[in-house]
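Sequence only, no structure available. Ideas?
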Amino acid sequence: MPQVCTPVYKRGTVGKGVLTPLAAKATASSSPPEPTAATAFIAGPSGLACEQVPLARIADEIGTPAYVYSSAAVREQYRILSEAVGNLRHRLHYSVKANSSRAILELLRELGAGLDIVSGGELYRALKAGFKGADVVFSGVGKTEREMEEALAAGVLLFNVESEEELHVLDRVALRLGMRAPVALRVNPEVLVDTPHPYTRTGEKGMKFGIPFDEALAVAATAIALPNIDLLGLDMHVGSQISQFAPYEVGIKRLLHLRTEIERGGKAKLTHLDIGGGLAVTYNAETEVDVGKFGEVIREIVGGTGLNIIIEPGRFLVGNAGVLLTRVLYRKRSGGKQFIITDAGMTELLRPSHYNAFHRIEALVPNGRTTVADVVGPVCESGDFLALDRQVDDAAPGDILAVRSTGAYGFVMASNYNSRPKPPEVLVDGSRFAVVTERESYADLVRGERADLDWRES
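Reply:
I predicted one. Tokens follow.
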């Protein structure tokens, strides 16, 4: 069985890796604070900039649409959360689904993060980015046997198991490989959660996620009895964009009570408690979540338990560290409405259409005029929009717009609908920038398609 890698559970230690500018490394003690997620994108002499790089330069050299990320903002968000949790034996396991760019993963590895994955593909990305199996917890309601085999072979720290059936399948897979599977049970804490959209609620009764709370003790007994399973922990995730701490308090207390019940018979000793992620970030003028208070709440509840605490931030680390650059193609008036038509749409950023999400939109170089318009993309769908009836800069064809807060659930949800190549991703670090994901070509769109078919008879 993979050993529990206790040295990674530190007391809020954070650092800077190879992406840190050399000059900053040499003078770290006297340098000014790194930009936060709120200050990484600021107006400069050449218009809006990411750290020290004008976004207009990136648009000119790389083209649009394009995603741009601030490495400094990611570092600062990681530091803020890690320090808030303080002296707990903890590790931040970044939720890869928020932004799975290899460059982002490598940056977080340098900071000391672990990972939370939900697929075999994310495990593959994790290993390519230099993570070890012991750095990874594997979540998700629909793990396949192949994915289980790959995760066992990699030696993941924990499988967050979400149903009794999954538990039995994992036991059989582990038997086939001659291994024991380290398991935490993901329990649905069944707490009421107020989030901006129903799709971001995962911890309420009746959701597909997790084991129903009233069944968890019986499933734990099953896990203890299975010959190829090691029950090591409990896990929960109450949802995304959580700005109140009551759901965490109630959920964690329920899990700690469950832990007591599980250990009562002396057949199991739990070592890990995964409290999930979901801390809110600001997209418009919302009040920022009090991360310090969050840390106080968590420390007060679990500080004396002796458990290794896993926290799974995703959006919190990267959401406001990214923008989507898009060029205005046309202006149009129809039915008494103004339309600003851009070269990015739902294929590049699905959140406005899928979640009715708000993203601030601004011109890199404002002209001082505003208008009320629908900002729409070129995709052949009425649902293809970035903003509706929004007061925005009165941008003209050729102007570049920045769509804010797109570092999470932006590129990862991009598609090739309408046979549109996916955009590039660019990482900024101080005064330098690099393309970390190339723009797709037309050839990429058909790379997996076959002209010479290998017909098979029934």
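The chain is about 25% helix and 25% strand.
Hope that gets you unstuck.
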